[in-house]
């Protein structure tokens, strides 16, 4: 009885084992055939030397028709058993949609234990075959009625072994070949638009981070277009030459790190973080140089380097955020997208997770999302710089103006007046200056208070602006004294302007209290520059002397200064002061 139980157990174990190792098969009937999800077998060839006769006798493991086997499976064989369960022959097409990234593809068609047909495709010599179309290998074959056919597919990749195979009828095959990668074209188009936008920003700002960001975008769009077949589909190019564009996988993080160093100014303000970024750039640059000699070998540790880059950049970002950098929170948001989606892609390329749209397109999605966020970072930085510049301009304006009247102050007047005088000398045009003073202003303060005095000063400043020309330079020198420089005005023109001001001020009426009205007048002194030898200080002195005469003659009037008389002593004194 025990012996019978043991025999039964052995038989059950053998049955379970047989079922467990049964090779996957695909049934094909008369209905429309569009097989895009099924199971196949695979065998990794680490020696890269196995022949068809050798590999057909070896065991195969089971996987899906879309799979990723990592970097240690550069040569892999795939076995697909097709059973025609119908009573008619089936005209079918094998599609290998990711063939554009391979070094070579071999297809062997076996029926009843004999090799019926084979197709050997070297992607450096696609002119020798007609089975390559827009990056997809299309192998047509006939599946006889009620028979089985076994296909062996040898895939020789440059670095990562990610593979897909589909079985289609003629209609599905044509439809699949004429369709375009709309999503990939959209990604590339968005990155191109950002490159153009950022180029305009560079010409406007001349910031080096714009250059690094543009180069990052270009590297990213090249890699996306290459890895997802857009270059192969559009330009119909493959093989070793086009594969070298995978160098963009190293230039992309290098330019991202340079962008971080530039926009966060790590060299000046964050030396520790700067050294970490420098070290990572050195490592990536070394791998890039290695890639010029052996791109396939250099790409093997690419996934590990990507993981290291993510850790370092995130750590630096968090460190800068803790130190209060205003932009880094936006960078961390975008970079988190990049890390998340690239992390999924790294797991896929290493063969650790099953293929899906998200895993196979993770790098492209991450690049685009981060690129959009970095564009916002750049734009926000420009806004911050503009706010700082506006604040600085406001500080300069405050330093150059009188806080009560909002007219220029004495210091700014002299700086600007000397500049305008030099321009007038070059253009051989006249310049005049006038000084005016409020008559009996102390009495206004004494009788009505300083609040009323401030109102008088403010109203007078407004009147001076209204009655002067747009090119005139108006300043408050202090107290109740004001100065106006009149470029392009001779003594006659200056006198007309002074008379307008005098009449307008005389007509002013201001309320000081209940039923109390304050009226003021001004006295003015005018001087025209001797353009050959007179300075601003000298002309102001003459205008001030004229003002003194106007006040002594009864106030509320205009007085012209005597022509300038410059002595040798004046010239010597001016030369010493200069």
TrEMBL record:
Q: Name one GO biological process term.
A: negative regulation of bacterial-type flagellum-dependent cell motility
Which cellular component terms (GO) are annotated to the entry? plasma membrane
> What are the entry keywords?
Membrane, Transmembrane, Transmembrane helix
Indicate where this protein resides in the cell. Answer: Cell inner membrane
Q: What class of enzyme is it?
A: transferase
Q: What is its EC number?
A: 2.7.7.65
Keyword Translocase in annotation: no
Q: Name one GO molecular function term.
A: diguanylate cyclase activity
- List residues traversing the bilayer: 184-204, 211-235, 247-264, 276-293, 299-318, 330-349, 361-379
Give the reactions, separated by semicolons, that this protein catalyses: 2 GTP = 3',3'-c-di-GMP + 2 diphosphate
Q: Which residues form the GGDEF domain?
A: 429-563
Q: Which cofactor does it need?
A: Mg(2+)
Task: Quote the Gene3D superfamilies the UniProt record gives.
Answer: 2.60.40.2380, 3.30.70.270
The record's listing under SMART domains reads:
GGDEF
Protein name as catalogued: diguanylate cyclase
């Amino acid at each position: 009885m025990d012996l019978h139980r043991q025999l039964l157990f052995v038989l059950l174990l053998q049955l379970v084992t047989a079922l467990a190792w049964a090779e996957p098969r695909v049934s094909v009937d008369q209905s429309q055939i569009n097989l895009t999800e099924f199971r196949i077998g695979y065998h990794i060839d680490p020696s890269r030397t196995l022949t068809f006769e050798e590999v057909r006798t070896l065991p195969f493991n089971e996987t899906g028709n879309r799979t990723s086997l990592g970097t240690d499976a550069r040569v892999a064989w795939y076995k697909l058993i097709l059973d025609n369960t119908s009573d008619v022959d089936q005209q079918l097409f094998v599609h290998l949609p990711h063939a554009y990234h391979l070094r070579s593809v071999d297809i062997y068609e076996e029926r009843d234990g004999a090799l019926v047909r084979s197709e050997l495709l070297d992607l450096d010599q696609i002119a020798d075959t007609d089975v390559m179309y827009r990056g997809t290998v299309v192998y047509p074959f006939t599946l006889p009625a009620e028979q089985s056919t076994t296909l062996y597919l040898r895939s020789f990749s440059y670095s990562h072994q990610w593979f897909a195979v589909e079985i289609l009828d003629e209609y599905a095959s044509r439809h699949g070949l004429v369709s375009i990668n709309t999503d990939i074209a959209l990604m590339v188009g968005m990155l191109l638009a950002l490159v153009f936008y950022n180029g305009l920003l560079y010409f406007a700002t001349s910031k080096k981070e714009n250059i690094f960001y543009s180069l990052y975008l270009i590297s990213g769009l090249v890699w996306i277009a290459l890895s997802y077949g857009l270059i192969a589909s559009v330009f119909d190019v493959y093989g070793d030459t086009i594969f070298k564009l995978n160098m963009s996988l190293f230039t992309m993080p290098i330019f991202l790190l340079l962008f971080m160093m530039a926009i966060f100014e790590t060299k000046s303000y964050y030396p520790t973080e700067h050294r970490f970024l420098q070290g990572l750039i050195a490592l990536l640059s070394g791998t890039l140089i290695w890639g010029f000699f052996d791109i396939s070998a250099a790409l093997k540790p690419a996934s590990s380097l990507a993981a290291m880059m993510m850790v370092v950049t995130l750590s630096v970002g968090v460190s800068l955020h803790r130190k209060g950098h205003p932009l880094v929170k936006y960078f961390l948001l975008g970079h988190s997208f990049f890390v998340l989606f690239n992390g999924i892609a790294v797991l896929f390329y290493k063969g650790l997770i099953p293929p899906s749209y998200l895993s196979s397109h993770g790098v492209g999605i991450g690049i685009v999302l981060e690129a959009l966020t970095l564009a916002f970072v750049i734009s926000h930085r420009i806004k911050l710089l503009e706010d700082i510049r506006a604040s600085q301009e406001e500080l300069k304006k405050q330093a150059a103006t009188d806080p009560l009247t909002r007219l220029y102050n004495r210091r700014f007047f002299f700086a600007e007046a000397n500049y305008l005088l030099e321009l007038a000398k070059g253009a051989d045009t006249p310049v005049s200056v006038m000084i005016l003073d409020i008559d009996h202003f102390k009495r206004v303060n004494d009788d009505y208070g300083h609040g009323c005095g401030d109102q008088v000063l403010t109203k007078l400043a407004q009147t001076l602006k209204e009655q002067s020309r747009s090119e005139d330079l108006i300043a408050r020198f202090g107290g109740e004294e004001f100065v106006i420089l009149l470029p392009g005005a001779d003594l006659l023109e200056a006198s007309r302007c002074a008379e307008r001001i005098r009449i307008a001020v005389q007509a002013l009426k201001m309320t000081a209290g209940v039923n109390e009205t304050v009226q003021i007048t001004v006295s003015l002194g005018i001087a025209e520059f001797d353009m050959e030898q007179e300075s601003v200080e000298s002309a102001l002195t003459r205008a001030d002397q004229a003002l003194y005469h106007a006040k002594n003659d009864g106030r509320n009037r205009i007085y012209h200064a005597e022509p300038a008389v410059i002595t040798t002593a004046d010239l010597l004194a001016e030369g010493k002061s200069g």
